[in-house]
Amino acid sequence: MRRTLTGGNWKMNGTPGGADAYLGEIAGLLPSGPGPEVVLFPPFTLLPVMAGAARKAGIMLGGQDLFWEEGGAFTGEISPGMLVDAGCTWFLAGHSERRHVMGEDDATVRRKLEAGTASGLRGILCVGELLEERETGRTEETVRRQVEAGILGLDAGPGNLAVAYEPVWAIGTGLTATPEEAQRVHALIRGWIGEARGAGFAEALRIIYGGSVKPANAGEIMKGPDVDGTLVGGASLSAKDFALIVAASDG
Question: Which residues belong to the active site?
Fold first, then answer.
């Protein structure tokens, strides 16, 4: 049985004082026992600040992005090794804001996945369709292309990867895919990965949902048998709300 994974992407939010208070609060709210794996993706500047307290709270840290070189003249970038040194065990690749605001294509996302997983980090490949693609019946075409570009032939096992299905039209809009639609697309993703990497790989890989996840809808979303967790945006900035979402993923 796949252990659920709950991620919180803080995006460009947070201060050292706020992060310290957050971890102090959430440590007493998370479910006891093994439960879901929990990982926070704060801004790079907060990673070293949060590392010790996050570890004590049983929370992993991840980088919101990375670059595929370990050093050099790459102003503004951060390497896989730097993330490891800062206390990370995870990273995101291909988040919709990186794809559609910063202009990253599938080839760029693939290079980041290769570099990050080769360094020992565990990667979450983010995929999802724009509203226009959904309305013109291209959800499957778009998501399959992104999944296969990231996963096909990648030298990483299913324990070092996850896929986050994040329909772009549902991120930060208050709109959410219905539980039935989320399950439908998750099942398709697992099927495509099975064709590309084998049934065993696909069965072991976690596929999580992102897109306006909140305490009020997390439990319903998680009912799908192919929905293995959530990647939470704005709601993860509240320790109480994020803890409720983690609890909804428990078991």
Answer: 95, 166
